[in-house]
């Protein structure tokens, strides 16, 4: 079942195709994250769904409601869609309660009670209701913005980098709270973010944009471990890309020795392998089960997790450098030799 559907949606600015032939489906009560480098079309896509831009081609529907098509588009206020932006966009001259209730019908008898209920929902203390935005913390302001968007009882929530201005700890906790609230209310959401980790954590569905086109859409774990191409692999997180010679029965030989792959290939054929750094397990000095070892070139101490630089030893790995995350308590020292073991299968990119 589909709630939001985009069919062949394009938006041009002069000769530039900011969004180019986008096909995307969002299920009810699901969370979709849209990621991509700067200039990839993420913000334009969100503006098209919200109604701040009109498509030059294609169609956008929400259930049975046609939101936009060439020559016809509903205004933003006519769409059952909520929006939370990066800065919250609160009205500075209104207090917290008035900001939350801005979109409500002022004739509602239970309007005040509904505002308080929304404050409870997003875990804002009721004693804050008469404060102005400048008297609130960044996290509190974003909770007000979320409550205001929820007040319209939308079918879809658009989240335009709402956590990016917050510090790391608050960003993580608020992201979890937003996901919890949306799920409890049965509201679908689309998150646009530059933070790949945030997208992977938040979403049920991940969409990768590049040059205005969708490169891949699917479940976050699948995209992270089995991306369509090397560019998507590198964008979604640290990637180890190695040239390899295929062997029989789903194995390949590369700078890390003999590695299992996620599919069988023709023996003797060439390919590139993708491994994520966390798939490499470093052992004590000596050789791993496959005889591979590496010299530690440097260690970046990061508390619970350190980044260890490796220079692979032996003819197979000559000239190959890697960086691997290791527990801070178990990190080796620069100059030491460690064994290297590959856990799980490598993803195969064919020529």
Question: What does it look like?
Answer:
By secondary structure, the chain is an alpha+beta fold. It folds into two domains: 232 residues, Rossmann fold (3-Layer(aba) Sandwich); 112 residues, Beta Barrel (OB fold (Dihydrolipoamide Acetyltransferase, E2P)). It is 22% helix and 35% strand. The protein has eight helices and 21 strands. The strands form four sheets. The protein has a six-stranded mixed sheet, sandwiched between helices. It is globular, with a radius of gyration of 25 Å. The model has no long low-confidence stretch (mean pLDDT 89).
Strand order of the largest sheet: 7-8-9-3-10-11
CATH homologous superfamily heading of the largest domain: P-loop containing nucleotide triphosphate hydrolases
- Major β-sheet, in short? 6 strands, mixed
Number of helices: 8
CATH architecture of the largest domain: 3-Layer(aba) Sandwich
Give the low-pLDDT segments. Answer: none
| CATH fold-level label of the largest domain | Rossmann fold
Question: Would you state the CATH class of the largest domain?
Answer: Alpha Beta
- Fraction of residues in H or I helices: 10-25%
């Amino acid at each position: 079942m589909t709630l939001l559907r985009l069919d062949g949606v394009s938006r041009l600015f002069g000769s530039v195709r900011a969004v180019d032939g986008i096909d995307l489906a969002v299920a009810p009560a699901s969370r979709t994250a849209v990621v991509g480098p700067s200039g990839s079309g993420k913000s334009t896509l969100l503006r098209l769904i919200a109604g701040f831009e009109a498509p030059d081609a294609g169609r956008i529907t929400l259930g049975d409601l046609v939101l936009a098509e060439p020559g016809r588009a509903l205004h933003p206020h006519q769409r059952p869609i909520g929006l939370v932006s990066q800065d919250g966009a609160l009205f500075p001259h209104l207090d917290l309660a008035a900001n939350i209730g801005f979109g409500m019908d002022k004739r509602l008898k239970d309007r005040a009670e509904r505002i308080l209920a929304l404050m409870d929902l997003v875990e804002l203390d009721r004693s804050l209701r008469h404060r102005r935005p400048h008297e609130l913390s960044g996290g509190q302001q974003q909770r007000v913005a979320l409550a205001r968007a929820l007040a319209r009882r939308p079918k879809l929530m658009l989240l335009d980098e709402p956590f990016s201005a917050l510090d790391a700890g608050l960003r993580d906790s608020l992201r979890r709270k937003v996901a919890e609230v949306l799920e409890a209310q049965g509201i679908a959401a689309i998150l646009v973010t530059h933070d790949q980790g945030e997208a992977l954590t938040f979403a049920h569905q991940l969409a990768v944009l590049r040059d205005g086109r969708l490169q891949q859409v699917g479940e976050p774990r699948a995209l992270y471990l089995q991306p369509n191409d090397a560019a998507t692999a590198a964008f979604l997180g640290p990637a180890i890309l190695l040239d390899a010679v295929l062997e029989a029965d789903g194995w390949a030989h590369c700078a890390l020795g003999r590695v299992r792959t996620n599919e069988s290939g023709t023996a003797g054929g060439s390919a590139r392998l993708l491994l994520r750094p966390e798939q490499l397990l470093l052992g004590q000095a000596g050789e791993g089960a496959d005889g591979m070892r590496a010299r530690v070139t440097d260690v970046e101490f990061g508390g619970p997790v350190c980044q260890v630089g490796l220079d692979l030893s032996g003819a197979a790995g000559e000239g190959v450098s890697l960086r691997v995350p290791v527990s801070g308590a178990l990190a080796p020292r620069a100059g030491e030799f460690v064994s290297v073991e590959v856990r799980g299968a490598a993803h195969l990119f064919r020529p």
